[in-house]
Design a protein that fits this description.
Structural class: alpha+beta
Distance between the termini: 171 Å
Order of helices and strands: HHHHEEEEEEHEE
Radius of gyration: 49 Å
Strand content: 15-25%
Helix content: 40-55%
Number of strands: 8
């Protein structure tokens, strides 16, 4: 009887072991299928999310691109549009830099530079106000009332009157700056003429003539290099040096 029970118990254990093996085999055979199904579902979900995102956002063009959409999420056409937009923006920046540099250069050469036309105009006006002969004819007792302006125009505003000035170079490379403008005072008015030259390789101009013409009066020279040279030559014929002493 005991042997029969023992045999039956062993048989049951054998049957249970066989069932467990079959269950494990079935589970193992189903595992790759489940894994593949999970991967496929996940991939489809990502594709659906991407398609849904693309459908929700508006198409990126060179006119509405603000850089919010990452480069990796742009289509080929949208990438080309962004490239066009960035190239255009870069060109605008370069153009702005060039224009700013040009304006700064013109501002310096025509206004801020000590050798500019405006600088010589301002210095000429200051010298006229400081010259007693000019003050006596234009504004006796108050040189500050002497005003200067450019050529007469139809514009009533004095600031709109341009200063007549020319810059030329002769055959020797000498630069000639010629300028004339008008001066007015309580007593009278006149015309100012300037002629300056700059030798090649030099930075500063040299006065040749600087005069003021007041109607009804003799021309007033503030600078007259030709007359100075002629006077020096004329004076040199009348005197000579001996032992460091000038003899007439």
């Amino acid at each position: 009887m005991m042997k029969m029970l023992t045999g039956n118990s062993a048989g049951v254990r054998l049957l249970l072991s066989s069932a467990a093996v079959r269950q494990a085999t079935i589970t193992a055979s189903r595992a790759p299928t489940r894994t593949a199904s999970v991967i496929l579902v996940s991939s489809r979900r990502r594709q659906y999310a991407t398609a849904q995102e693309t459908t929700k956002r508006r198409s990126v063009t060179p006119f509405n691109d603000d850089g919010h959409v990452p480069w990796t999420r742009l289509s080929a056409g949208e990438k080309a549009g962004r490239a066009v937009q960035q190239t255009f923006n870069f060109g605008l920046v370069i153009l702005g830099v060039v224009l700013t540099g040009g304006i700064a250069y013109l501002l310096f050469t025509d206004v801020l530079s000590p050798e500019s036309k405006t600088a010589y105009f301002n210095r000429a006006v200051d010298r006229i106000r400081a010259d007693p002969r000019c003050v006596a004819l234009l504004s006796p007792g108050d040189p500050k009332k002497i005003a200067a302006h450019g050529e007469e125009t139809h514009n009533k505003w004095r600031r709109a009157r341009p200063i007549a000035a020319t810059v030329e170079k002769d055959s020797r490379g000498v630069e000639h700056l010629k300028m004339h403008f008008h001066v007015e005072g309580p007593r009278g008015s006149g015309v100012v003429g300037l002629h300056l030259t700059k030798q090649p390789g030099h930075w500063e101009h040299e006065y040749q003539t600087f005069y003021v013409d007041v109607r009804g009066h003799q021309r007033i020279y503030l600078e007259n290099k030709e007359a100075e040279v002629a006077a020096a030559k004329k004076g040199g014929n009348k005197e000579f040096k001996f032992l460091g002493v000038k003899w007439n």
